[in-house]
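::Encoded backbone::
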Amino acid sequence: MKHTITFKPSDVSIRVDQGTNLLDAALAAGVHINASCGGQGVCGKCRVILETGDVESQENENITAEEFDKGWRLACRTSVVSDCLIQIPPESRGAEGFVAQKLDMGKAERTVSELEPIPLAADWKLDPIVTKVPLRLNKPSFGENISDLSRFLSGLKKQHGIEAVSTEMRCLRVLPKILRDNDWSVTATVMSDPAQELGLLPSEKKGLPRLVRVEGGDTSDKNLALALDVGTTTVSAQLVDLNTGKVGADKSVYNNQIKYGDDVITRIVFAQKGDGLKKMQTAVVASINQLIDKLLEESGNSKENISAVCAAGNTTMTHLLLGVEPRYIREAPYVPAAGFMPLERAADIGIDLPDGVRLYTFPSVASYVGGDIVSGIFGAGISQGEELTLYIDIGTNGEIVLGNKELLACAACSMGPAFEGGGIRHGMRADIGAIEGFHINPITLEPMVVTVGKSRARGICGSGLISILAELLSAGVIDQNGKFEQKLSSKRVRSGGSGGEYVLVWAKDSATEQDIVITEVDIENLVRAKGALFAGCQTLLSSLSFSFEDIEKIVIAGAFGHYINLEKGKLIGLFPDLPVEKFHFIGNGSIMGARLACLYKGMLNEVERVAKMMTNVELSDNQSFMDKYMAALFLPHTESRFFHNVSKYLEKSRQVAKREREAQ
C-alpha cells in the first residue's frame, strides 16, 4: 500500500510504501531534516510535527509526553501508515529561511524498490544442479544376490528414472555398510556434470550425472547449495534451498586476502613470493568458511545438508581460490591458466564441507574479465535481450559489458576498493551502522545522516559515499577538484591529517566514539575510482562505434546497501547523464548468477554460451583509455558536454548555496 507524505514548509510530496521510515521518506524526497546519529533516536535533532495523518512512533526522551500529544515526533523513529502532512520546524531545518530543494533532473532519489526489476528465470522450471532422492531397496536374497551397487543403480532407474550414474570409489567404499545400517533405506545425492572434467571443451564433453553422496534414511528435504561471489574486497554468500529456490541466509565478509594487497595486481605479485600462493588460497578459504558458519548459524542448518557450491569471481580471484598460478595474468600478453576450470572437491582446497561437495566456478573471459561478470550478465538476462545494454559492475575490478543477444563486448578498469569502503578512512561494507544516505543543509552545513539499521554510525558504505560526495559538491563545500572550501564558517569543515575534511558525525553521536569524517584523500580515491569507470565505459563504447546516447538500458550491479542514488551518481560523474528510466539496479549481480546456476542446471549451458560470445577490449595498454581517464578526474568531468544537465544543475545549486550563506 502506498501513501503520500507532504513536507511543510517546502510543500514537497512523495509516495512511499506503508511502513516507510519518515526520515528515509524525507531523504528520498530531497527534504532536509537535521539528523546526526544515523537514525537511532539519540541526537534528537530530527523533531517534526505530525499535522494530519497516522504514524507508528515510539515515545522518546527527546520528546516530552506533552509534546507527543501535540503531534511532535522524531522522524527517525516514525513509520508511515497513512497519508500524512508533516511540518518541519526551523530548528530541525537548521535555518529559518531554508527550504531544501529537490533535484530538478528527475527523481531526487531512486531506491532499489522503485527501479524496474529485471525478470529472472521466468520461463525456467526449478531443476537444481544437485538432487537428493530417497531410495527404498529390497534386501538381497539367495534368489536375488546382485551386487549392492547394481541394486542401488537399479533403484535409481526404477524409482526416479535416473538411467546411468558415474559412481565414485569413495561412495562405493561406504555403500555396503550404509545400506545395511539403515535397513536399505537411503538417500542418493546426484550431481549433474555442469562442466567438463578437463575444462577445455565445455559443451561437447559432457559426462554422466555423478553420485556424490549416500546417506542413511530420507534426507531429501534437506538439500542446500552455497552461492558465492568471491570479490577482491568482499566475499558474499547465500545459502540456497534447492527444493524451494529460497535463500535461507545471506552474508558478506571482507576477503582476508586484503592483508596481502588491495587489488589483484598486488596479490598476484605477492603470490610469487615463496608460499604466497598458498597463503592467498588459505586466506580466501578462511573467509568462505567464516561465511559458512554465519549462514548455518542464522538459518539453523547443518553443513551436512550442503550439496554443492557455485562460485563466481574475477579471473585472478578464481585462480587464487583454486590455487592456480596467476602470474601470467598480469604479464603481457595477459593470459590466464584456463577460462573453464575443472570441477573441484570443495574439501580439497580447505572449504569446510562434506567430502562429496563439488565446487563449480564460473568461466572467465580474459585476464581481467572473470566469472563474476559472466555470472552477472547471465543472471541479468542481457545475453537473451534485444536492447543495447551497458552493464556496470561497481567493484574493485570495475567490469563493464556492452551488448545484447547478438553481441557482447567487455572490459575491466581497475577502480580500486573505494566504493566498497577500502582506502576510505571510515569506509565499510553496507552493514549495520554504515552511513547509506546523506543530505547537507547548504546554509548551516549541518548533515542529515541515515545509517543501515537506523543505528549509531560506524562508517560509510558505497551508497553513502556517493551521496556525500554529491551533496558536498552541489552545496559548494568542495570544488570540482574535490578540495574543501576552507573559508566556510562551520566547525564541521576543518583541516586534518589528510588535508581538509568534513565531520559527518561527532564522536558523541557515533558508535565508535570517534568523529566520522570524509577527507580530501578519501575524495581523491573516490574521484580516481569513478574516473576509471567512466573512462572504461567511454572506451568500450567508442571501440564499437557507439556513444552513450545509443544505449537503451543501463544495468548497475554492486553492493550499495538498501538503495542507490542515481541522480547523485550522475552528479559526481560516476554514471552517464542519461534519463533515469534507462537505469536498472540488480544489487550483487555475481551472486545472483551463481544462485540461478545452482537452481537451474540447464542454465549452465547458457553460462558457457555467454562466456564464449564475449569479446574482451583490453584497457591495460590502451592510450585512448588513459586519455579519457585523465579527463574524468574532475567532478563531474572536465568536458561539460558529457554532463549537460548535471553541469547546469551544479552551476545553479552552487550559486544559490553561496548566495544564501552570504545572506545569513
In short: Residues 276-299 form the longest helix (24 residues). Confidence is low (pLDDT under 50) at residues 96-119, 195-205. DSSP finds 16 helices and 29 strands in the chain.
